[in-house]
Each structure stands twice: as C-alpha cells, then as structure tokens.
TrEMBL record:
Function: Component of the Mediator complex, a coactivator involved in the regulated transcription of nearly all RNA polymerase II-dependent genes. Mediator functions as a bridge to convey information from gene-specific regulatory proteins to the basal RNA polymerase II transcription machinery. Mediator is recruited to promoters by direct interactions with regulatory proteins and serves as a scaffold for the assembly of a functional preinitiation complex with RNA polymerase II and the general transcription factors.
Keywords attached to this entry: Activator, Nucleus, Transcription, Transcription regulation
Family recorded in the similarity comment: Belongs to the Mediator complex subunit 10 family.
MF terms (GO), sorted A to Z: transcription coregulator activity
Subcellular location field: Nucleus
Any GO BP: regulation of transcription by RNA polymerase II
PANTHER family for this protein: MEDIATOR OF RNA POLYMERASE II TRANSCRIPTION SUBUNIT 10
Protein name according to UniProt: Mediator of RNA polymerase II transcription subunit 10
C-alpha cells in the first residue's frame, strides 16, 4: 500500500509540475513552442491515465474531510495529524481535571456525610463492602 501511495504522490507531483510548465508556456506563447506545448499536454493526459490506473489500488484509503479544509486554507495537510494529537492531549487534560475534581468532591462528600449521618454511612459502606477509612 505504501508503494502505491508513493507512486500516486509521484504522479500527482509530476502532474502539478506539468500544469505549471503549461501555464508558463501558454502565458508567453510563441508559435515555435507549439511542439513543446503539445508534448506537455500529452504528458498531462498520460499522467491522468496513470492516476486513473492507481485509483483502484487506493480506494480503501479514507481521508478525513478536515484535511481538505487544511488544504483549502493553505495549510500543510501533514500538520493535520499533529493538530489532532494536540487537541486530543488538551481534551485529555480537561477530562483528567474533571475526574480529579469529582474524586475530591466524592471524598469531601463522604467526610461530610460521615459527620452528619455516621450510622447511615456505616450501613451504606457495609453494603458496598468498603472498609477503607474516610479521610
């Protein structure tokens, strides 16, 4: 699969380069450049045929739509993975903070419940099989 993707990448890079060269030739067209232009157009057609041949081998590759947003915004699509990891780490820190807060709240609640309802809390803890001391 990796060699197929590399082959596709090479074909697309060659296609982009041919389009760039055609743009240069057309923008300053000289009649003596007609043969070169024809060769570049033929190379463009051949390149598209090669890309079409590779299509069936990369059909299972799924690209997140956000990657196309990166490209549309002029950003490097290779930064997408890095940004996803950074977002995941940030979210992980937020969730960890919430978990820690709930744990502190639970221990504070148990202390307060033990102060106000010691008998009921002892029964509750006996039912749960929780013999740890309340801190």
């Amino acid at each position: 699969m990796a060699s197929t993707l590399e082959s596709l990448e090479t074909q697309l890079e060659m296609f982009i380069e041919n389009v760039r060269q055609i743009r240069i030739i057309v923008s300053d067209f000289q009649p003596q450049g007609q043969n070169v232009l024809n060769q570049k157009i033929q190379a463009l057609v051949t390149g598209l045929q090669e890309v079409d041949k590779l299509r069936s081998q990369v059909q299972d590759v799924h690209v997140p739509l956000e990657v196309f947003d990166y490209i549309d915004n002029g950003r490097n699509p290779q930064l997408y993975t890095k940004d996803c990891i950074e977002k995941a780490l940030t979210k992980n820190e937020q969730v960890k903070g919430k978990i820690d807060s709930y744990r502190r709240f639970k221990s504070y609640l148990l202390v307060e419940l033990n102060n106000v309802f010691p008998n009921e809390l002892a029964k509750y803890r006996a039912l749960r099989g929780d013999d740890r001391p309340i801190s």
